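Figure 2 data, in text form.
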Amino acid sequence: MPDYTYLIVGGGMTAAAALEGIGESDAAETIGLIAAETQRPYNRPPLSKGLWKGKPLESIWRKIDDRRVTLHLGRAARQLDIAKQRVTDDQGTTYGYQKLLLATGGSPRRLMFGGEEILYYRTFGDYQRLREWADADQHFAVIGGGFIGSEVAAALAASGKRVTMVFPEAGIGGRIFPRDLSDFVNDYYRQKQVEVISETMISGLEVRSGKRVLKLRDAHDQGERELTVDRVVAGIGIRPNVELAQQAGLEVKNGIVVDRSLRTSQADIYAAGDVANFYNPLLDQQMRVEHEDNANTMGRMAGQAMAGQHVNYDHLPFFYSDLFDLGYEAVGETDSRLDIVADWQDQFKKGVIYYLRERRVRGVLLWNVWEQVDAARKLIAEPGPFDANALKGRLPV
């Protein structure tokens, strides 16, 4: 039985960052890593961003020290025995540990139909498959108008493909962007030759004569029509992979619950990344964040904590996206249902969006504004009260 001082379940960015954190504090002990994917740890954001703009493929791989880390790839952890400090994978191999990190991430949410005809975009394997499709096919349906859907649609359209987006919200990014900005993004995508079908549900999929036929149902009049395309890609969110934690009896609530030191409800077991539910003192609430900054920062601190350092994960993560020639960074609670104050230098082209609850800033969206994330965090930490006048020009644009 392989026996490690540190065992990591998961092979994504969080796991790679944890290896760095352990290495900073403990250079002598043994480390094992179990990952369901067959690839070594890699950066995920370029799969829907940089690789479609010419970024070299070799740039995505994370640097890890093979002399210290034993990789067990293509294996899914199935059982966690807390009493014996053992993890068993889907091939029956059992691994011992002294400290365990659950960096199990999330799995794409799936529709009730379509099966393998729908590519739920998330992994390096998905990127390879979509590249093969793009070499052979022309018309793509992208289901979902959120983070992944908007990026994949932009990547395909910029590659000369015909793209049709379908989503239930009124506008692209509608859960984050205020309505007027979301409407602008809809029009912007249309100018880029993307067909945008909003406020529409997908109710079925059939294959006819080598084409994929989607059944669309309008959210208002419930009328149904069909959309025929070559291929279908979806980005409709993920669900945290908590099955291993649940089986072992760890506390689970919208992810694996961790304390400020990133420990789970069981000593010597930690969790980090997409799967971790943590308390953020700046917002005074529990959170689960599915973005790069959180994966890297939390993963590294989890590794440090496992190796004996005292850590407090008080970090408020930010996220970012590129939409053709537009881009943004955002931090905090960016929910379009909150009170919105917009401070535009050039409307819909450059400005700052503030999200308020009870006259306190809860989140900030920096639209084509850069290097202001730290200033935004400081603003979120202030008690207020704030109104539109007080926020005018508060962050430079």
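Caption note: The chain has a mean pLDDT of 96.
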